[in-house]
Amino acid sequence: MNIPLNAINHRILNLETLKIYQDPVNMGLFYNITLPKIAYFLGFCYADGSIRGNNSRVTITILVEDARELKNSFSKFGKYCYYEYDRSHKNRRNIGTFHFNSRGLWQFLFDNDYNEKSTRSADKILSKIPYNLKRFF
Asked: Using CA atoms, how far apart are residues 44 and 42, in angstroms rounded to an integer?
């Protein structure tokens, strides 16, 4: 094989720069739900969240006062982006939005019918939450 040296170097450089996807959310906490904060998050997400689009974005939008209370709890299981929106000029209350860019979390929620929550019951996700944690949902 006569492959030019610069072609080999180019391929090696490309291999070194490839990034392996590492999910920003600790999905082990969702596959085996043992913590109240996970059941609480799933409830918030069911009530005020959405999964749409690119198979990785999970969004929760709630009043800013409530969002500020949850920021610390949500950071314990994953990384997210948080934004506050001032809606006072419209005589509306301000909101906070969490964006989780997580393929694993999106897929987990999709598999548990979060994409159809307005037409289906929460039975599928509730079956994954232990009895003693259902009250946090």
From this structure: 5
